[in-house]
Write a structure and sequence with these properties.
Shape: elongated
Low-confidence stretches: none
Largest sheet: 5 strands, mixed
Distance between the termini: 77 Å
Structural class: mainly alpha
Mean pLDDT: 90
Radius of gyration: 26 Å
Number of domains: 4
Strand content: 5-15%
């Protein structure tokens, strides 16, 4: 579908503005760095060194697919940039691309109601969630790119039965799965697209469905030859703890947070997603006749709406059945859902148009436009305010999301970090240990081995028995960051009972110890 020039120029403008917002949010120290980011970057460095898919603690890459660290390594090889810089600038460029793609999807759904398309594009631009995820070193932004490309190709496939569009779906789904395991949902979604496009033609369903199945081959080869044959695991977490219903409720809550402010005191009432959605649905049922619902349902099945609309419920079910629940508890951690911004907007505006605006009878055009503007203003004002607070916090302390654990003011101004860097420079053979192994790797770019771990009820005798002789033939330094949140890591005071631990440096933000095995 050809985009008219005014909206095309609008898309280009907001896409560039989105890249600018990411640069602004990361202007103090650079992109945010999480534990996962450190592992991906260190794996990329390992690839550049010719040592394979291993992270900074010498652990193999089995928890995630291989595409993202391979891309970081490739970018750094071509440009000469550090892997951190490669990940940072890659996400800035991807932010520009993702806004453009999401805006295009929204336009295709509302090409005949251009006001909705403009509001939808602006909503994606001012989404704090979108800026946050792109302002961090993460595999999620590029995964979103592949997902959006898949949806645009699915539009073409449903509309024209295009073989070229099918191959784009196959390629984007394969790349998405090599980027994140969640890409398997796109492969399943591709199968649904084939059924919808050819539901009366079984031969075509078998033909195109078989082709869509080719998307599984790249990740299948990786899992079998790398994970299973080499490390005897499917994808690292063979028995995750799942609570599908809780996952589903958390998913709805996090999406609602894009439009409504979150407060813990309101969690049981206003932010009970099932209660809120149930109340809205009840009101809509009361004010609408059956024919309105029939029209709403048919609107969702239009070729340029069906993929973007149905991927939301389709994916929510998949996420509920696959997300490790303990990793899903933070109400502000919504990285799994940023790719659904366009889907949520499309569903909202279709519902607004058919189930609310078409019920207006008095001075219809004026009221419809007025209500559209009012609704559009609401979905922009709260996200814009949230984005303003986020940018302000980022300018003061470094990228301010909860994803950024290590690249902020607290770590950059930690007085222990310059000291450990000097010690490493003086003794390059020393091994490094830390309660925050990912953080010490990020600041020293040295292999950071895992410290001894203790179970919940382990006493000193049990720790001594398990770790007798630690650290063996790998003496070095411990950088113990304060405050310590990882209670399962055995602290230096306990390790001093089984090893030769000497305090080298101390401050309120961290302590440095030399450590070696006690001589026999």
């Amino acid at each position: 579908m050809r985009i008219p020039k005014p909206y095309l120029y609008f898309l280009i403008l907001i896409s560039l503005a989105g890249g600018g917002l990411v640069l602004l949010a990361t202007s103090l120290y650079g992109a945010g760095v999480s534990a996962d980011a450190a592992k991906n970057m260190s794996t990329a460095e390992s690839l550049l060194a010719g040592e394979g898919f291993y992270n900074h603690s010498a652990g193999p890459l089995v928890f995630w697919p291989p595409l993202y660290p391979a891309l970081l390594a490739g970018m750094s090889l071509i440009t000469g940039w550090d892997v951190f810089v490669s990940g940072w600038y890659l996400n800035v460029l991807v932010m520009v691309l993702n806004i453009f793609l999401a805006g295009t999807l929204i336009y295709e759904a509302f090409h005949d109601k251009i006001l909705f398309a403009y509001f939808g594009g602006l909503f994606v631009l001012v989404s704090e969630s979108a800026v946050r995820i792109h302002a961090n070193i993460s595999s999620d932004p590029l995964y979103i790119t592949f997902s959006l490309i898949f949806l645009l190709a699915a539009n073409r496939y449903l509309e024209k039965k295009s073989r070229a569009a099918l191959w784009v779906m196959i390629l984007s789904a394969a790349l998405a799965t090599l980027q994140r395991w969640l890409g398997a949902g796109l492969i399943a979604m591709g199968g649904l697209m084939v059924l919808v496009a050819h539901w009366r033609e079984w031969r075509l369903i078998l033909r195109d469905g078989s082709l869509m199945g080719l998307s599984v081959l790249p990740i299948g080869v990786w899992i079998y030859f790398h994970n299973i044959l080499r490390f005897n695991t499917f994808w690292g977490n063979d028995s995750p703890i799942l609570d599908p219903w809780m996952n589903f409720e958390f998913s709805l809550t996090k999406i609602m947070h894009w439009f409504l402010p979150y407060h813990p005191r309101l969690e049981g009432l206003l932010f009970n997603p099932l209660l809120v959605l149930g109340a809205i649905l009840l009101i809509l049922i009361i004010i609408n006749r059956r024919e309105n619902w029939v029209l709403w349902w048919r609107s969702l099945w239009r070729p340029n709406v069906f993929p973007v609309a149905f991927i939301l419920p389709f994916s929510l079910v998949g996420l509920a059945l696959t997300i490790v629940t303990r990793d899903h508890l933070d109400p502000y951690s919504d990285r799994y859902y940023v790719g659904f911004l366009a889907s949520v907007i499309v569903l909202l505006f279709i519902s607004l148009d058919i189930l609310i605006l078409r019920r207006v009878r008095f001075k219809e055009n004026v009221l419809q436009i007025g209500l559209s503007l009012l609704f559009g203003a609401w979905i922009l004002i709260y996200p814009t305010f949230s984005l303003y607070k986020y940018i302000s916090a980022s300018l003061a302390n470094g990228e301010a999301s909860n994803y950024n654990y290590y690249n902020n003011r607290a770590f950059n101004e930690n007085p222990a970090i310059p000291v450990i860097k000097d010690l490493v420079a003086e003794n390059p053979e020393a091994y490094l240990y830390s309660n925050y192994a990912d953080g010490i790797w990020f600041y020293t770019r040295r292999t950071s081995l895992l410290m001894p771990r203790s179970g919940i009820d382990m006493n000193l005798a049990e720790i001594s028995e398990r770790y007798s002789g630690w650290p063996g033939d790998k003496p070095g330094y411990i950088l113990w960051f304060l405050p310590n949140e990882f209670k399962h890591v055995v602290p230096p005071e306990i390790l001093a009972e089984i090893s030769d631990v000497q305090l080298v440096f101390s401050s309120g933000q961290g302590r440095i110890y030399s450590v070696q095995a006690i001589p026999d």
